[in-house]
Design brief:
mainly alpha, 267 residues
Length: 267
């Protein structure tokens, strides 16, 4: 079954090539029709003229230009833009408490920063000190997109081979109606387990992206010496909301275990 799965991309590529070649052949035949059977000398002479014209056409620069134009008109093969990009995440421990702990730490740091802002008298003289304290609190959170999202992808539901194939070959799947071989169900057919994992993966992916967008605003605000504390608080709140949305997808008992390990520094 694994070998069969590995062969599917090459089969699909052959189907796509066949579709493109058939379209090109039809276009040339329409432009230069040649009857296969000739019932008279007149038809034969006409056929010879058409063949001579076709040879001249094939030897001229017009043919490459025509092929290039045809390929431009063909539907583009869908590219994988709906799935998480590979950022080097180790997915051998997906869904484990070990990989959940760093995400809970991110949430704790954001909550501590929010509490500090609320409990501090935001006078101009205290602003610099407040910003410095918040920067120190947020230090455990990666400030690069790749490293930040990597932490999420190490816990999130992994993208299956089937999801990758469907996303990367959307054009082929559509035009072949999900054909996956003789006497096999459509590759687009799903089981209940597939649907649950797909929905969870989509929600995790969206919450992860929202969290990073908010964190970008946080880091951008902290870079300015005269940062607006109100803007900073709003960005931190947005990041907190995204983290809560993401962590709500984790089992409650696992979240409790992660918090216990953080408090006891057992991680």
């Amino acid at each position: 079954a694994q070998e069969d799965a590995m062969m599917r991309p090459s089969i699909s590529s052959s189907i796509y090539f066949f579709i493109a070649a058939a379209s090109l052949f039809d276009s040339i035949i329409l432009a230069f029709p040649v009857p296969l059977l000739s019932s008279s000398e007149k038809d034969i002479k006409s056929t010879r003229k058409q063949l001579a014209g076709r040879r001249a056409f094939c030897c001229s620069p017009v043919l490459p230009a025509a092929i290039a134009h045809l390929l431009v008109l063909l539907p583009k093969v869908a590219k994988a833009s709906n799935l998480p990009k590979n950022n080097g995440a180790d997915q051998s421990r997906v869904g484990s408490t070990d990989t959940l702990v760093p995400l809970v730490i991110i949430r704790n740091c954001l909550q501590e920063s929010k509490n500090l802002i609320i409990n501090t008298n935001n006078s101009l003289s205290d602003a610099d000190e407040l910003l410095l304290k918040i920067s120190n609190i947020l230090e455990p959170i990666p400030n690069s997109e790749q490293k930040f999202k990597k932490l999420f992808d190490q816990y999130s539901v992994a993208v299956s081979y089937k999801q990758k194939f469907l996303d990367q070959n959307a054009f082929l799947v559509y035009y072949t109606r999900g054909f996956d071989g003789p006497n096999r169900p459509s590759i687009e057919s799903t089981t209940t387990s597939d649907e649950v994992n797909s929905v969870k993966q989509t929600l995790q992916y969206g919450a992860r992206n929202d969290a990073w967008t908010a964190m970008e605003d946080v880091y951008a605000t902290l870079q300015y010496p005269t940062a607006d504390i109100a803007d900073l608080q709003e960005s931190i709140q947005s990041a907190l909301a995204a983290m809560d949305k993401y962590l709500a997808l984790a089992p409650a008992e696992q979240l409790a275990e992660a918090q216990t390990r953080i408090q006891s520094k057992d991680f």
